[in-house]
Design brief:
Layout lengths: L1 H5 L11 E6 L5 H9 L4 E5 L14 E2 L1 H9 L3 H8 L26 H10 L3 H12 L5 E2 H15 L4 E7 L2 H4 L16
Amino acid sequence: MDQHMATFDLSSGDENLTAIVVGAGRSGSTMLSNLFREHPAVLSQSEFFRLLNPPALGTGILDAAQFWEIIGTPAPHLCLFLQQETPLTEFLYPYKAPSSRFTSETSVSPILLVTLPHLTSDYEALYDEIHLVVQGFPPDRIERHFVRLFGWLTHRFGRLVCVERSGLSLPNRLPRRWSLRENRETERS
């Protein structure tokens, strides 16, 4: 991990390296994400934003601990869902396995439940690594924290660009300043 931190500037993050693809259910966005995943230059994430609490996309300045609380802390709303034993194919983290660190009783971090298993088979180690990296983030607006994290992940996996694919109602939850073209609402959907 030290090699990744030593060569990536945590104070910045390049917005030009990240694209966000959103789509309604059953629209083919998962297939698109899987196609991106096959390209050697693309780090294709899935459902990173979808499971975060709505306040996660608010405004204001957050320090590193507040940002980690949003992305890394097991989410109470997910705990109830997992305890209902309603499996979703998107939930890749094996929360029912005896060897898993997180369970339906403890709940599972939003990024660990779906996103990190898409990136590596050693998702719990990556989760710990991200926690260490995020601790070095300076206070900033939340979208800058996300750009910084996505930039670090892109660098960490040796890719050139990061594509995040989230579904459902995400476009209405993104801050206006995240739209690709602020004067064209259609660019956000």
